[in-house]
Design goal:
This protein is mainly alpha-helical. It has 22 helices and no strands. It has a domain at about 140-385. The longest helix has 24 residues, at about 110-135.
């Protein structure tokens, strides 16, 4: 760290405040190199607002463009009319987006400001996950390496599809808290993810199983093996869900399970490369193998409640991937499970600093190489170059490609 005294620390923060006005991106780089993780959020979260604000909307096929158009179309609707048309009768399945649109439309008609606010929430949840992940561990190279992988699992460019990825960080952070202390209030946090993105109703069911069944790893392992062998579980779960859900919520659940959904939601619109498929499979098997190797290697150890809870949750989430992974857009949950896996590996490594654990952690890097490359490739067209080269004023005054 550059500062050793309170005076130096104050001087550093004054410098970062000035850089936020003069060259925000350079200030971010300085903050990365100098600021302690516990204070990093004070620069990163405001920078996320600028990142969201810098979306250009020139990619008409991007989710951000369709969100911007939707936001512009609600100018003449009252809150009640908008809620009825978009949620109860329309295709919108998420209360978060509905209320966000309705509230912000009272103050602004700018889709850029909408994405600035969206990015602010996204960035805050991202930082909370990072803070929990790194915790109070002794900071060594391996910890910073794991932190780098953790932050790149869900690339910043995913802000483009903010609904699912905001829900992802919210879900992961809620699960972090829930695994540390199996409390009903944290279970409610996990369950409330469905109000941000309704597709999370499916993994929430698995977490409810863990809450009521308890720490039964042998039962979960048997279930996991069954899901590996049998892929036709979807209809069973939908039939079970239909007996508990009202017609409104059942219709929305069906939106995530019918084959027609593929053409309207799938994010990867081009032909997926063989390299991507190979690394995607590598990620899945990396999660499976490392978690099981870790558990088998340390069977003689008495792990704490958090690690035991995480192991059971991971086995259930692995089963979830086996059952629903082939559904349209459900592959996105792989990234969420990867974050949970890295957290599990970090917690075990903290207690058992063996060469095996260190090597398993190093093997995590290939799981994020393709997504990271694609993120930076897409960011060229998705975000304005001003976010890298501009001042605060130039970022906030740049015009959008979206037609108002």
């Amino acid at each position: 760290m550059l500062y050793k005294t309170a005076q130096n620390r104050f001087g550093l923060y004054v410098l970062l405040a000035l850089l936020f006005f003069l060259w925000p991106f350079f200030g971010l780089c300085i903050a990365l190199l100098t600021v302690q993780i516990k204070d990093f959020k004070y620069y990163v979260v405001p920078f996320f607002f600028l990142l969201g604000y810098s979306i250009t909307f020139k990619l008409t096929e991007a989710d951000s463009y369709s969100y911007g158009v939707q936001f512009l179309e609600i100018r003449e609707l009252s809150f009640i009319d908008f809620f009825k048309s978009s949620y109860l009768k329309g295709e919108t399945t998420d209360l978060y987006k509905t209320f966000l649109y309705a509230i912000l439309s009272c103050f602004t008609k700018s889709p850029k400001f909408l994405f600035g606010v969206v990015a602010l929430v996204y960035g805050y949840l991202f930082i909370k996950c990072v803070e929990f992940f790194i915790g109070n561990t002794k900071k060594e190279f391996i910890h910073y390496y794991m932190l780098l992988v953790f932050t790149l699992v869900i690339p910043f460019v995913n802000l483009n599809g903010f609904r699912f990825w905001t829900a992802s960080f919210y879900f992961v952070y809620a699960l972090f808290l829930f695994s540390k202390k199996k409390d009903s209030k944290y279970l409610l946090l996990v369950a409330s993810t469905v109000f941000i993105h309704f597709s999370f109703v499916l993994p929430v069911i698995f977490i409810l199983v863990f809450y009521f069944v308890g720490k039964k790893p042998k039962i979960y392992l048997v279930f996991f093996i069954i899901t590996l062998l049998i892929n036709n579980f979807i209809s069973v779960f939908i039939d079970i869900g239909s007996s508990f859900l009202s017609n409104i919520f059942l219709d929305k659940l069906n939106n995530y399970t019918i084959s027609n959904y593929a053409s309207s939601v799938i994010e990867g619109k081009g032909e997926v490369s063989k390299v991507f498929l190979i690394l995607n499979n590598y990620q899945i098997w990396y999660m499976f193998i490392t978690v099981f190797i870790t558990r088998l290697n340390f069977l003689r150890y008495e792990f704490n409640e958090e690690i035991n809870n995480l192991f059971c949750i991971l086995i259930l989430m692995f089963s979830f991937i086996n059952i629903f992974g082939d559904l349209p857009s459900m592959h996105r949950f792989n990234s969420i499970v990867m974050l949970l896996t890295l957290n599990y590996m970090m917690r075990v490594f903290t207690l058992n600093r063996t060469t095996l654990m260190k090597n398993l952690n190093y093997l995590a890097l290939p799981t994020i190489l393709v997504s990271t490359y694609q993120a930076f490739d897409l960011s060229v067209d998705l975000f304005s170059s001003e976010i890298v080269t501009g001042t605060l004023f130039s970022i906030l005054t740049e015009k959008s490609y979206l037609i108002y």
